[in-house]
Amino acid sequence: MEVYFKLIKKLDHFTLDVTYEFDKGLLSIQGNSGSGKTTLLNCLSGLITPDQGRIVIHDQVIYDSHQQINVPAKLRNIGYVFQNYALFPNMTVYENLVYGMKNLDAYRDHQQRKEMLEYATYMINTFKIEHLKNKYPKHISGGEKQRVALARAIVRKPKLLLLDEPFSALDDDTKEIVYNEFSLHKETFKIPTILITHNKLESQLFSDHIALMCNGKFGF
Question: Is 138 exposed, middle or buried (0-12, 13-18, 19+ CB in 10 A)?
Fold first, then answer.
């Protein structure tokens, strides 16, 4: 079992109450706005604390309300690409990419730090953003921001990748390019992934598992 979660969180108009587990691949979650999809990702990432539940990733318990386990967000090693990409505007593309690595304990060891920075260079080349290294987010396109955000999420070698409508801000021509690139990256890195999307085509293209969410609950 790669990913397991059972979560309950009371919201204003309904209660999020979901249980799911999957071994590998990409789970896409579809549903109307306000159905609890982003709240679920925030609970998994540690940005929000559920009322009850349990989260296990790669046999590590990162949240268990009964055992009073709640691993801080920065220590969960979960990659998260937000809908607006959330790049730091005062940092260059390269600084954005390596920022999250500085929170890792291994970064303090010289040899491991060297290996991480080499991996960051590999990611820059893989995502074809080398020419953007010294630019700031306001000077790059939406498709380029999407690449940078995805590279930043993956560079820490996360145990789980969360994607919240990562393609919604792109125009149709850019989407087609990014879809092809994402399919290649999905096969290359093989990170268990949860994708939030309103787009049925995206679910069909990328998903190994599909769930529908309505008022905080899953349907299949």
Answer: exposed
- Amino acid symbol at 21: E
User: Which is nearest to 82 in space by CA: 208, 205, 196?
Assistant: 196
Q: What is the DSSP letter of 132?
A: G
Contacts of 172 (CB under 8 A, 6+ apart): none
pTM score, whole prediction: 0.88
Burial class of residue 197 (count of CB atoms within 10 Å of its CB; 0-12, 13-18, 19+) = buried
| Environment class of 129 (CB within 10 Å of its CB; exposed 0-12, middle 13-18, buried 19+) | buried
How confident is the model over 183-210, as pLDDT tens digits?
A: 888 888 889 999 999 888 888 889 999 9
- Give the span between the Cα atoms of 147 and 109, in whole angstroms: 28
Strand partners, 22: 3
Is 211 in contact with 20 (CB distance < 8 Å)?
A: yes
